[in-house]
């Protein structure tokens, strides 16, 4: 899914960071929610894990303060699921995408993201199993080598 594999450019990220910081400087430290969302959106699409974490933090703050606007809530939930998927925290990602699907059961984009999250989970599980299997194979080879050396003596 493109939203999980596409990265924002450094220039684009910098543009929204500057806008965010300018609003902080010019509005008593409180940028408007749209600016925070745009910056968070860019951060969750960064190549850097630290940026993704920062974006998720902003989105969680926005979601916590969003009481009535369903469109904004939908966007926050969606990009929280994206951010957590990029951080490989699939449990939390699934929690957010399920919340979005409760809000909008027919949302195709959310349904596709839910499938992509499940696919990412399976891929990571296979990688983990392969690494564990490789570790066991290496340990077995060392034991066999040790036994062979002991027999020579």
UniProtKB/TrEMBL annotation:
SUPFAM superfamilies attached to this UniProt entry: TPR-like
Xref: CDD domains: Fis1
Membrane spanning residue stretches: 128-150
Keywords: Membrane, Mitochondrion, Mitochondrion outer membrane, Transmembrane, Transmembrane helix
Gene3D superfamilies (UniProt xref): Tetratricopeptide repeat domain
Main location per the UniProt record: mitochondrion
Cellular component per GO, a single term: mitochondrial outer membrane
A Pfam family matched in the record: Fis1_TPR_C
Topology term for the membrane: Single-pass membrane protein
Subcellular location: Mitochondrion outer membrane
GO biological process, one term: mitochondrial fission
Family according to the record: Belongs to the FIS1 family.
Known role: Involved in the fragmentation of the mitochondrial network and its perinuclear clustering.
Record remark: domains: The C-terminus is required for mitochondrial localization, while the N-terminus is necessary for mitochondrial fission.
Name of the molecule in the record: Mitochondrial fission 1 protein
Gene source species: Folsomia candida (Springtail)
């Amino acid at each position: 899914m493109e939203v999980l594999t596409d990265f924002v450019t450094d220039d684009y990220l910098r543009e929204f960071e500057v806008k965010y910081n300018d609003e902080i400087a010019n509005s008593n430290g409180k940028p408007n929610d749209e600016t925070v969302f745009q910056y968070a959106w860019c951060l969750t699409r960064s190549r850097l894990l630290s940026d993704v974490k920062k974006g998720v933090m902003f989105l969680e703050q926005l979601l916590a303060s969003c009481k009535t606007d369903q469109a904004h809530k939908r966007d926050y939930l969606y990009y929280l699921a994206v951010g957590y998927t990029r951080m490989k925290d699939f449990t939390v990602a699934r929690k957010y995408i399920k919340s979005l699907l409760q809000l909008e059961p027919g949302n195709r984009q959310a349904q596709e993201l839910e499938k992509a999250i499940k696919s990412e989970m399976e891929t990571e599980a296979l990688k983990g199993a392969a690494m564990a299997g490789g570790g066991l194979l290496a340990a077995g080879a060392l034991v066999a080598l040790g036994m062979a050396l002991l027999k020579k003596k």
